[in-house]
Amino acid sequence: MGDMFAVGGCDCNCNSGTCSQTFNVTGCGAALSGATVTINVSSGGTQLATGTTNGSGQVTLSWTGSCTVWVSIAKTGYTSYGQVDPLTSGGTTNVTLVIASGYGCCQCAIPTTTLHYSFTAPGCTPSSGTGTLSYSGSNIWTLDAGVFQLKCIGSQLAFWNTVVGCYEYASSFTCSPLSITIVWHEATCPGQTLPSGCAVTTWTITP
To answer: Which range among 44-53, 80-89, 144-153 shows the weakest confidence by mean pLDDT?
Structure first.
């Protein structure tokens, strides 16, 4: 057994072996892909490992040395995480990031600024168009015409018709880069689609 008081010796937290850890990162009620997880000896100290979370918000890192390390996690739109964590090699750490100032939260971190939309409506007049959505507060972005709002309904992104009071959930979305697709069906809210009377209108919303 080594002498912890010898030159170059270790204290009881020293570990010359390999440590590994799986990190599950979430935010806005969903798994966060593209979050950067970094392991350092201490805050600002030597970097031991780094990686990016996959589509399930997960990344597994391995490094040589102690399992008591500084863990930092960063993702655009979220407050960065950073603290000393005493980890158990082979274990799992779950971290939920908090939304940052200047962003709304609904499945993705969405800037509380003007968003842009485009739509296509095959066979209708007009058959396409573009415009903006302005942030109205409380995780709501309102279309320039005022009839539609992008908002959070039941913790899911949805397009809300303010006149009839009905909505369509986003059919698909990516958070990095932000892109939201909503397929609006005339049967859902008759006579209230833009343009009016189209059976299907597909909306794409981006920053």
So the answer is: 144-153
Residue pLDDT, tens place only, 20-41? 999 999 999 889 999 999 999 9
Contacts for 66 with CB less than 8 Å, ≥ 6 apart: 13, 14, 15, 19, 41
Going from N- to C-terminal start, the domains of the chain cover 18-96, 103-206
Q: What is the CATH number of domain 18-96?
A: 2.60.40.10
Beta strands 148-153; 156-161: pairing state: antiparallel
Name the phi and psi angles at 112, rounded to 5: -85, 50
Cα 196 from Cα 162, distance rounded (Å)? 15
Residue 136 backbone class (left: φ over 0; alpha: ψ -120 to 50; beta: rest): alpha
